[in-house]
Amino acid sequence: MLTQNVNLTETQAEFIRKCVDSGDYNNASELVREALRLLQAQKDEQQAKLQQLRAELQKGYDAREEGRFITLDTKAKRATYFEDVNRRGQERLLKEANGSPTSTE
């Protein structure tokens, strides 16, 4: 295993001591390895979410390029559209609450 020296604040060093003294970890190295595993998992999850968001954005760009969009250029059109979205959402929630399968529109 690679040995690496790091500089810690007194607060960080005290936290490590408390974790080791409590028996949660056998030594500081074990704690640091666990912390790095958690950080890597967090970074991986963030990267996956970012990739998913980019894919969804691309779907939107593609839909616009293909003419699959609506224009809500008036207050009345926006109100009607969002009322419809709300109604369909409420219907979907009721179906889910009743155990009925839902389909995506």
Describe this entry's structure for a reader.
70% of the residues lie in helices and 0% in strands. The protein folds into two domains: 7-69, no CATH class; 70-105, no CATH class. The chain has helices spanning 10-21, 28-65, 75-97. It starts with 9 loop residues before the first helix and ends in an 8-residue tail after the last helix. It is elongated. With 105 residues, the chain is an all-alpha fold. It contains three helices and no strands.
Mean pLDDT: 94
Give the terminus-to-terminus CA distance. 54 Å
Order of helices and strands: HHH
| Count of the separate structural domains | 2
CA-atom Rg in angstroms: 26 Å
Strand content: under 5%
Structural class: mainly alpha
Question: DSSP helix count?
Answer: 3
Determine the fraction of residues in helical runs and give it as a percent range. 55-70%
Summary tags:
105 residues; mainly alpha; 2 domains; 3 helices; elongated
Summarize the structure.
This protein is mainly alpha-helical and 105 residues long.
Topology summary:
Elements: H1 10-21, H2 28-65, H3 75-97
